[in-house]
Amino acid sequence: MIKFLAVVSLSALNLAAQFPGGGSATATLRGRVQTDEIVVEPYNVELRSVSDPMGTHRGFTNSMGEFQIQGVAEGEYQLTISDRLGRPILQQLVHADSSGIPIDVRLPSKSGSAAPAGSVSFASLSHKVPRKAQHAFDAAEKARKRGDDDAWSRHLQEALAIDPQFAPAHNDLGTYYMRHNMFDLALAELDQAAALDSGAASVQINRAGCLAQMGRLDEAEIAARRAIQLNGGSPRARYTLGLVLANLRKLPGEAVDNLLGASDAYPGARLVAAQILLNSGHASDARKQLSRYLQTCSGQNCKSVQRSLDRLNSTQ
Question: pTM of the entire structure?
Answer without folding.
Answer: 0.62
